[in-house]
């Protein structure tokens, strides 16, 4: 089975850095993550996006803990059109019947938001701002190096 789009298209690998449409023909349902513990992620803890005409259903998080520098910017999961339950998990993904989480229209908006918040932290005297900026730059640099064919 081929993914929609061109053969050279990386799919949604770079979302939210670049826009990506969801696929209404693919059913995503009855998935449980249980006893998951991660730390040190470069990007937000996860992205769960489904099409508004075919939402994700039965998505369950049980004891899922994700730690990384994103918590310093109050960022969590990016979710859209997801139905499910969350128990003993942090951060808590927002599952609902309506569009939830954060949405980012363009790469510039996403990067701008990250750096704006880090700069605000820096000028407010938050000593973790330098580390946040450095981690963001390293993460974006790694992504762009991967894409440089």
UniProtKB/TrEMBL annotation:
It comes from the Eukaryota. InterPro entries: Pectin_lyas_fold, Pectin_lyase_fold/virulence. Gene3D superfamilies: Single-stranded right-handed beta-helix, Pectin lyase-like (2.160.20.10). This is Uncharacterized protein. It comes from Favella ehrenbergii.
């Amino acid at each position: 089975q081929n993914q929609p789009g061109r053969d050279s298209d990386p799919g949604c690998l770079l979302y939210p850095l670049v826009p990506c449409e969801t696929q209404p023909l693919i059913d995503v349902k009855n998935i449980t993550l249980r006893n998951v513990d991660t730390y040190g992620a470069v990007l937000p803890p996860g992205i769960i996006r489904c099409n508004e005409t075919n939402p994700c259903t039965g998505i369950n998080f049980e004891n899922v803990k994700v730690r990384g520098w994103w918590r310093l910017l109050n960022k969590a999961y990016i979710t859209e059109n997801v139905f499910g339950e969350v128990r003993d998990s942090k951060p808590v993904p927002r599952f609902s019947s309506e569009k939830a989480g954060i949405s980012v229209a363009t790469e510039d908006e996403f990067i701008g938001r990250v750096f704006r918040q880090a700069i605000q932290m820096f000028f407010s005297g938050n000593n973790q701002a330098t580390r946040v900026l450095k981690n963001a730059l390293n993460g974006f640099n790694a992504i762009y190096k991967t894409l440089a064919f």
